[in-house]
Amino acid sequence: MVINKVPKIIWCVTIMAYLLGALPAAANVNQTQEPQYIWLKNGGAYALSSVSVKWKVGSTTKQKTFTANVASLDSFCVDLSQVKASDGHPIPLGAEVWLVAHIAGGDTESCRKDTKRYYQKSGEGLGHLMGGTTLQNNRCKNNPNPPAQGAISSGNSTACAGSE
């Protein structure tokens, strides 16, 4: 009788391991190394006055700054395929990309991380979350959870919104 129960136990353990292993993989879809969309959730006790999209190709760094009034609990979303520098040139495919957030009356925080992200028309997104106050604990952290519908107050797209 014990022999008949072993396959069921192995099957159950295998299914549980698969499900538990699949959950982090699903969350990582939003932490792609090749984003088309980047979002920033403001979880801090401040407003963001502007957000810059920066990109680097070789030794040249360019940026596009969006005037943003991203209040606490609101989000910024950008479709990189729609961003152009002041010279009119779009972000080239394969360029390293990141955001820089400018806190009204406070710090400027870069969302550039040790793991580099490179723009592709992938349809995938990359998320960040800021918290803290204007001058303390406000660094930009990776955040795989997209903003809720209706929580995007600035940027050039609402495509970052999840189904929360």
Considering the chains and any ligands shown, give keywords for the structure.
Immunoglobulin-like; 164 residues; alpha+beta; single chain; globular
Could you give the count of β-strands? 9
The CATH topology name of the largest domain reads: Immunoglobulin-like
Radius of gyration: 19 Å
Main β-sheet: number of strands, strand sense, barrel status? 5 strands, mixed
β-sheet strand percentage:
25-35%
Supply the number of helical segments.
Answer: 1
Strands of the largest sheet, in order across it? Answer: 8-7-1-4-9
The tally of domains stands at 2
Distance between the termini: 47 Å
Order of helices and strands, N to C?
HEEEEEEEEE
The shape is globular
Average pLDDT rating: 82
Using the 3D structure, state the CATH architecture of the largest domain: Sandwich
Helix content: 10-25%
Residue windows where pLDDT falls under 50 for at least 5 positions = 5-30
CATH class of the largest domain: Mainly Beta
Structural class: alpha+beta
Short description:
Helix content is 16%, strand content 34%. By secondary structure, it is an alpha+beta fold.
Explain what this protein looks like in three dimensions.
By secondary structure, the chain is of the alpha+beta class. The chain folds into two domains: 30 residues; 119 residues, Immunoglobulin-like (Sandwich), CATH 2.60.40. 16% of the residues lie in helices and 34% in strands. The strands form two sheets. A five-stranded mixed beta sheet has the order 8-7-1-4-9, with no helix packed on it. The chain has a four-stranded antiparallel beta sheet with strand order 3-2-5-6, with no helix packed on it. A hairpin with a 2-residue loop joins strand 2 and strand 3. It is globular.
